[in-house]
Amino acid sequence: MATSHAATRDSETRTRATEQLVTSLWIQHSTAFNLLILTLTSLRVRTPSMASTSAQQPRLITLHFPNLVRVAGETIEGHVDLNLPLARKDGLETLQIELRGVIETQIYKRYTHAGTWYTETLPLFSLKESLWLPGATPNETNTDTFSCPFRFTIPDNLPPSFYHTCATIGYSLEIVGERSSGKKRRLRRSFPVTSAASHRQLLTKESLRQGWTGPWREIKHDQKIRQGLWGDYSHVSATLSIPELPFFPIATPIPYSFHIVTETKTLGRSESNNSLFPTPPTQSSKLTQVLHRITDYRVRDCDTIFNDNIYETFDLQKAQGLADDTVECTPAMEAVVDEPEWIPNDTKDRGIWRRSVRFTSTITFPFAPTFSGKTLVWQYTLQFVVPFPGLKNDLSLETPIKLGPGFARPPPGSSNLTYADVLPAGPAPNMLDLPPPAYWEKEEHDWDDEKH
């Protein structure tokens, strides 16, 4: 009896620990980025009693399809297990599977007494296969399960998966069963797709991974600030150096340097023992590194077109471990602090103190590549902010950037491999702009009746 109680306590402890882990991971990711850890959609806390209950209730249909990030142009494979006794009992007549992609946008308009949601769905593609007919089942079989394989090639030149409550680019497998009762059985499994990188884009990614030796682009900004409401101004400037590229591949460490220079107001050299303003930050935690995304979308309703936009800001210091498993979370940022330099002016014993700090590190973008379509467009702006005491003294430097795909189409026959096994693309990102777990659970529902 004591052993039984101990086993029960151990099982409950493991269950609570797993639930806490899942909850903490989801809170951490959804709060900042609305991103998805793909394994959460299939994770279930199972106890022996739950397993036995599941075994007692066989499913009519079971879909076997690896839950991986897919690349446009890739060939995917899987199979569907059909329980034949349940199919006969249910009156199932045919079974088919459809691979589809859509762009869906919706806008809410409030009027005097009520509001209306307007929705536009733009199909990207649709591919269908027949899985099963009653006559196709062998008369003699030693099992109640009939396995129906399927194989699709995802079209090329597709936009990446994207999710927002008002704008979604989604891809899914949908199984439809026709029944003699005139109703249908439906099951949808959504999965993420990223655009395929071109040969040039893959070469760019490899150059970055091996250490960038190409040209650099500098973005500079400077301004005058003062410690109080009156008095002479000091001077601050910042220079961001990033690789000179037309795009930056997602989920890839991008090297950069950030140089901050401060100059005090004119003062006497004897005043140098006092606290000098402004003081440049020497810790990376004092800097703000964010990525802004503005998404413009539209909905056409008959002859009327509605337009709206979404403005989002992502904290990049919290996002660094989200692109793939090879990137450290919040990579160390090296700071080089120069010795203060006294620069005299024409007046005897008067001048300014110049100080500078240079940060070097890498930055990773685990977000959907830049996209422009008929009903949906999004673009990015990178921003660094250096804080200084005083009203409106913070120095902000920003530049528009384009994100591009960073993964090759896997070779044929690799549908069931993880991306760590597929070369030369490397591991696919664990997160993109994907729905939260609740969205996936809604899409990946059990077999429900649906009337024509």
From TrEMBL:
<dbReference type="Pfam" id="PF00339">
    <property type="entry name" value="Arrestin_N"/>
</dbReference>
<dbReference type="InterPro" id="IPR014752">
    <property type="entry name" value="Arrestin-like_C"/>
</dbReference>
<dbReference type="InterPro" id="IPR014756">
    <property type="entry name" value="Ig_E-set"/>
</dbReference>
<dbReference type="InterPro" id="IPR050357">
    <property type="entry name" value="Arrestin_domain-protein"/>
</dbReference>
<dbReference type="GO" id="GO:0005737">
    <property type="term" value="C:cytoplasm"/>
</dbReference>
<protein>
    <recommendedName>
        <fullName>Arrestin-like N-terminal domain-containing protein</fullName>
    </recommendedName>
</protein>
<feature type="domain" description="Arrestin-like N-terminal">
    <location>
        <begin position="63"/>
        <end position="195"/>
    </location>
</feature>
<dbReference type="GO" id="GO:0015031">
    <property type="term" value="P:protein transport"/>
</dbReference>
<dbReference type="InterPro" id="IPR011021">
    <property type="entry name" value="Arrestin-like_N"/>
</dbReference>
